[in-house]
Amino acid sequence: MLNLLGDFIAELRAAGIPVSMSEHVDAARAVQVIDISDRSLVKSSLGATLVKDGDHMPVFSTAFEVFFSNRSFESVADLMDGVEAESPEGAAGASGPGDARGEGGGASSSMSANELADLLYRALREGNRADLRRAAAEAVTRYAGVEPGRPVGGTYYLYRTLRNLELDALERRLSEAGLADQPTSDALAQRLSRDEAHARIEQLKAEIEREIRERLVEDRGAEALAKSVRKPLPEDIDVMHANRDEMAQLERALRPLSRKLAVRLARRRRRRRRGPVDLRHTVRRSLSTGGVPIDLRFKPPRPAKPEIIVIADVSGSVASFARFTLHLVHAISSQFSKVRSFVFVDGLDEVSRLFEGVDDPAEAVARINAEADVVAFDGHSDYGRAFLTFHERFADQLTKRSTILILGDARNNYHQAHAEVLADLKYRAKAVYWLNPEPTSYWNSGDSIVSQYAPYCERVVECRTLRQLEAFVGDLA
Amino acid sequence: MSALDPREELAKRLGLLHVPPVRFDSPHEIQKLLADNDYLSDEAIASVVFLADRLAKPVLVEGPAGTGKTALAQAVADSIGARLIRLQCYEGLDESKALYEWNYRKQLLRIQAGRPEGSAEEWAHLEEDIFAEEFLLTRPLLEAITATDPVVLLIDEVDRVELETEALLLEILSEYQVSIPELGTVRAKQIPMVFLTSNNTRELSEALKRRCLYLYVGYPSIERERDIILARVPGISAVLAEQIAQVVRSLRTLDLKKAPSVSETLGWARTLVVLGREEIGEHDAAETLHILLKYQSDIERATKELLGRSKPVA
């Protein structure tokens, strides 16, 4: 059965949200009992039945806006079979609500730039939703320069519109005006009015983004646009190529993730409670059964907590990956008997001390850049030299309980590899793992020399996303 | 398209004589009912509660601590005049604490009382007798489904039980029944409303999530927070409520270990009212920040960022 709801669910699945068959049924039932002409009600109903993870809500929200932006439903049948009835019109850009808005835009398109700025300022100042929406529509008409038919996701249009609006100046003006309203002008009042202004500007940005999206949907249809605006779930974001927004998402996702991981590992350790048979205890127990060892006794398990040594490349290209991994490993350091961290570019420095006595690993990670002494020569990664330095200074401290994690892309800038040093490290330690934030297909291309080091590692793991990182670290402990 | 209404379907499976009437007419009615019980909901909350009633499904409520997840169940119970049955989850929770337990003392008494004759027939009879409902101690889950008066079942902090224990809940959540080996299956006598809350300390199983409607309760918008303060703190002025909501919003944008929750916000608001403040000055804020924030490092950071000072007031 091809229908709008089905297509929508297909889009959610494509974006990585797991939607089961029974959830599909629930959603179909839900839309039958609600007032379908109320869009926000439809949205929260679909959200409640289809999405079962708070982190997935933003992705769901975007997909919903794209799919249902300018469709309104009179009956359930519309929603279930909407595609056939709606899409020819939708493609022509002449569906009902689009028309209404088109008129609204047309009426105000005679506005000059100054009038627009004025309207915008007033709408923001008074927090008037309808005016804000009108101003956003006007701004998009004026500045975005939407070109029909181009297969884009709209980020460029957004950028163009925002640049022309000079939002920074607007925000300052709002903030000052807000401060004038306050009875006092101490630091707190200043901060509050600044935050208020910022919140309103964010509202405006969201409004503009929505406007652009609606126009793109009119232009190209929901399915096509959904594909171009599809964003990865936080756990699937490629760490090496994350933009600033995605970085912030990752940071936010990291903390609950490490907490969950720690809980899971602690539980697993507690439940594996059988050690080897305790012969002494068993024999003593057997006295009560006439010397027959019916009741076996076990030794408590030795907490085989590994000792972790992280050696991380923190040069520009892979720095963010190293930061995330260090954060994660230290956040669950209670699961290891000891964690030591080293960072390098072409020099090597131990940074374990930064993590000592700090509750929040993020703080320590932030200090690495400023305080670690990692550049010895020209500031280009030199794995060979880093391994040499490490071997020279710390090799004698390695034991058969040490697990070495090497983080980096193995792009050695054509320096000497010194793989033999790694071989010796492997001989001394329990295991060597290499986490590479590059996709497997890039390995050994250009100056990447993964294959020279790989023979001396237990495993070389592709580790591009938080999901992969979590899976690896979970196996380790 | 003409699938059986989920409520009818469930009622038929449970063998109920008639389909229980729906509790709410529309999400708007729910918002109003909840507001009458001092719980300010928003559209999303109301519509999920509405669906829970119509689809006869449990609701899994997730979100940061102190955003009113438990209070929601309480408010729903109050607004439909139902009894709230609460199962607090913890690590190590088992069947005998969650579902039912045989009252073996009473069983022993019964056996002793019927001792004199001792034929095999008697024994069979006795055995049948001691595994009767009379000797069953009902625990929250069983109590909720055997109740005949209206009830709302709250399974609080479900993320605290082990993954294996979660399975105990599955039968009751999807079928509204409990299987007791000695007694057979106990079916619900009504369709109770069920809420589960989770603080998200671990991933819940797919099976559990699939059986529930999902509701994420995050921190409220500034307008809603202001309204909550106004509704829950008697004698507070609108100006002060607005200011409090603003400060709390700003605090939540900082990178804190523990962002202030709604309940902490209310505590702060009450304090300021008791202190007789009409508005928050820098000094008051600095002195009372410890009510909102629970970590010294958070307090230091907030003092620095918000008040532009380096040292908090001791």
Report on the structure:
The complex is a heterodimer of chains A (477) and B (314). By secondary structure, chain A is an alpha/beta fold. Chain A folds into four domains: 4-92, no CATH class; 96-231, no CATH class; 247-271 and 305-476, von Willebrand factor, type A domain (Rossmann fold, 3-Layer(aba) Sandwich), CATH 3.40.50.410; 275-303, no CATH class. Chain A is 58% helix and 7% strand. Chain A contains 21 helices and six strands. Chain A has helices at residues 4-14, 21-33, 39-50, 57-68, 76-92, 96-108, 113-126, 129-144, 155-165, 167-181, 187-220, 222-229, 244-271, 279-286, 319-331, 352-355, 361-371, 383-394, 419-428, 450-453, 466-476, and strands at 307-313, 338-344, 348-350, 402-407, 431-436, 459-462. The model of chain A is unreliable at 82-108 (pLDDT under 50). Chain B has 314 residues and is α/β, with parallel strands linked by helices. Chain B folds into three domains: 6-93 and 140-216, P-loop containing nucleotide triphosphate hydrolases (Rossmann fold); 100-138, no CATH class; 222-306. Helices cover 50% and strands 13% of the residues of chain B. Chain B has 15 helices and nine strands. Chain B has helices at 6-14, 27-36, 43-55, 69-79, 95-98, 104-113, 120-130, 140-146, 163-175, 206-211, 222-232, 238-253, 262-274, 282-292, 296-307, and strands spanning 59-62, 83-88, 100-102, 136-138, 151-156, 177-180, 184-187, 193-198, 213-216. In chain B, the strands form three sheets. Chain B has a five-stranded parallel sheet with strand order 2-5-8-1-9, with helices on both faces. In chain B, strands 3-4 form a two-stranded antiparallel sheet. In chain B, helix 14 (282-292) runs antiparallel to helix 15. The termini of chain B are far apart. The model of chain B has no long low-confidence stretch (mean pLDDT 86).
